[in-house]
Write a structure and sequence with these properties.
Length: 469
C-alpha cells in the first residue's frame, strides 16, 4: 500500500472518527442515571482516563505490527485466528457498520431540523411497525456517497476527513467559548451541588418525549450501577479512535505516527468532550439536561446561548460532525475486512485493490451492509448491545501488551507503553469494573452483544471447512 497519510492526517482520522453524534446526545441519558453534575463530570473523567490509557497501550502493538488491519491484526497475532475472526465478525456485523448507520441516521435527523419536510412527509413504505422514511433514504445516500468518494483513492477521503474534522473542532471551540461568555444565569453551582449524592430519574414516556417523574436519591453500590449505565453513553461517544490502526499500512512511518496520532487525538477529543459538558452544566439545569427535547442537550444549550438561531447552528454543527465521522469510519473499516480476506476469513474478492490503490469491493460490502442496517431500523438496538463487547475487545487487546511482554520479551518494541505496567493495568481494572457492574445491574446491555459475537463461532467453523469463495 502507498504511504499517503501523514501524522496530521492520522490525527484528524482519530479525532474525526471519535466525534460523531454521541457528544451532542448521550449526556441526557447520563444525567438521568446520575442526577448530579459532579458525577456526570466524574464519569467523563473516568472514560477519558480509560480511553487515553488504551491508546497509549495500543501504541506498543501498533509499533510492533505496523500493517493494515490494526486491532484485528494485533488480536490475531497474539491470540490466534479464531479470536481475531470473532473481533472482525463483530466489526462487520454491527460495530463498524452499525455505527456508520447510526451516525448517518443522526445526520438525517438533524438535517430534518433545517428541512422539516423530511420529518413531515409520510413514510415511503410502511408495513406494521416497519417503515422506510426519507430520513433513512438520506442516511443511505450519504453512506453510498462517502463510500464512492473513498473508492476513488485515499487522497479524496483524506482531504474530506481533514476538512470536516477541522471544521467541527473549530465549531465546538466556538460553542464552548460562547457557552460561558453569553450565559447570564449560570446553572453551574446548582448542578454541582449534589457532590456525594447521586439521583436517578428515568422519567415516563409522553408521546415521543420523556417527562420527569421526580429524582430518587441513590448511593453505595446502586450509585456504582448508575455510573456503569451512564458510562455506556460516554464510552460509545469515545470509541473508534482505534480506526487509525486499521490504515497503518497507508501511514508514513507507522511505527511512530500511529501511536502519536492515537495519544494526541484521544487527549484533545476527551478535553473537548469535558468542556462541552461544562457548557451543558452552565447553560441548563438538571432537568434541562436530563429531559432535553428528543434527548438533545446540545440543541437545548445552544438555544439558551444563541436564542432561536441556536437550533440552526447546532443542526449545522451536527451535520458537519456526523458527515466527517462517517467518512472516517468508511475509510478505515474496509481495510480490516480486506486484511481478513487475505487471511482467508472474509470474501476473497475483498482482497483486491482497484486502480486507485484502495479496497473498492471491501468498501462496497461494508457500505451496503451499513445501508441494510439503516433501512432495517435495528441499528439502535444493536448498538445498545455492543458497548460492552467493544470494551471487552479493548481489554483483550490491552492485555495482549502484558501477555507479549511476558511470553516474548525478545521482540523488538520501537515504542514501549508509557508507565508500563501501570497504564494497561489501570485500563484493565476500570474496564473490568465497568463490565462487572453492567452484567450485574444492566444485563440487557451485555448478554445480547455477547451472543452476537458468539454467533461468529459457527461461521468460523464453516469458513475453515469450506473456504469462502
Amino acid at each position: 500500500m502507498q504511504k499517503k497519510l501523514k501524522l496530521w492526517d492520522a490525527t484528524m482520522l482519530v479525532m474525526g472518527s471519535m466525534i460523531g453524534s454521541g457528544i451532542f446526545i448521550v449526556s441526557s441519558d447520563m444525567m438521568r442515571n446520575l442526577g448530579s453534575g459532579y458525577w456526570l463530570i466524574a464519569v467523563w473523567v473516568i472514560t477519558g482516563i480509560m480511553t487515553v490509557a488504551a491508546a497509549i497501550s495500543y501504541g506498543e502493538l501498533s509499533a510492533m505490527f505496523p500493517k493494515a488491519g490494526g486491532q484485528y491484526t494485533y488480536i490475531t497475532e497474539i491470540f490466534g485466528k479464531m479470536t481475531g475472526f470473532l473481533y472482525g465478525w463483530g466489526l462487520f456485523a454491527v460495530i463498524q457498520t452499525g455505527t456508520i448507520a447510526a451516525v448517518a441516521m443522526a445526520f438525517g435527523k438533524f438535517t430534518a431540523y433545517l428541512i422539516p419536510a423530511l420529518n413531515d412527509s409520510a413514510p415511503i413504505f410502511q408495513s406494521g411497525t416497519f417503515r422506510i422514511t426519507w430520513v433513512q433514504i438520506l442516511a443511505i445516500v450519504v453512506i453510498l456517497l462517502l463510500t464512492f468518494i473513498n473508492t476513488r483513492g485515499v487522497k479524496n477521503g483524506k482531504l474530506l476527513q481533514n476538512l470536516f474534522t477541522t471544521s467541527k473542532i473549530l465549531a465546538l471551540l466556538g460553542i464552548i467559548l460562547f457557552g460561558f461568555l453569553l450565559i447570564k444565569d449560570s446553572n453551574w453551582t446548582q448542578n454541582m451541588s449534589f457532590v456525594w449524592s447521586g439521583f436517578q430519574n428515568f422519567g415516563r414516556e409522553v408521546g415521543n418525549d420523556l417527562v420527569s417523574t421526580g429524582w430518587q436519591p441513590i448511593s453505595g453500590v446502586t450509585l456504582l450501577g448508575g455510573i456503569a449505565a451512564a458510562m455506556v453513553g460516554s464510552v460509545f461517544s469515545s470509541v473508534a479512535w482505534e480506526n487509525v490502526t486499521f490504515v497503518s499500512g497507508e501511514i508514513e512511518n507507522p511505527k511512530k505516527n500511529v501511536v502519536k496520532s492515537m495519544v494526541l487525538g484521544t487527549i484533545v477529543v476527551m478535553v473537548l468532550y469535558m468542556l462541552v459538558n461544562f457548557v451543558y452544566l452552565n447553560a441548563l439545569d438538571r432537568d434541562g439536561i436530563a429531559f432535553a427535547d428528543k434527548n438533545r442537550p446540545a440543541v437545548a444549550a445552544s438555544e439558551v446561548i444563541f436564542g432561536n438561531l441556536g437550533t440552526v447552528i447546532m443542526a449545522v454543527l451536527v451535520m458537519i460532525s456526523t458527515f466527517g465521522c462517517i467518512n472516517g469510519l468508511v475509510l478505515a473499516g474496509a481495510r480490516v475486512f480486506q486484511t481478513m480476506a487475505k487471511d482467508g476469513l472474509f470474501f476473497r474478492s475483498a482482497t483486491e485493490n482497484n486502480r486507485f490503490d484502495v479496497p473498492e469491493k471491501s468498501l462496497w460490502m461494508q457500505g451496503i451492509w451499513a445501508c441494510v442496517l439503516a433501512l432495517s431500523g435495528q441499528y439502535g438496538d444493536l448498538l445498545d448491545m455492543i458497548s460492552f463487547v467493544i470494551v471487552l475487545f479493548y481489554m483483550i487487546t490491552v492485555f495482549g501488551v502484558i501477555y507479549l511482554r511476558i511470553k516474548k520479551p525478545e521482540i523488538e518494541r520501537p515504542y514501549k507503553t508509557w508507565l508500563y505496567p501501570l497504564t494497561p493495568v489501570l485500563y484493565l481494572i476500570i474496564g473490568t469494573a465497568f463490565c462487572v457492574l453492567l452484567i450485574w445491574f444492566k444485563p440487557q446491555y451485555t448478554w445480547p452483544g455477547f451472543l452476537l459475537i458468539l454467533l461468529g463461532l459457527p461461521v468460523y467453523w464453516f469458513i475453515n471447512r469450506r473456504k469462502i469463495s
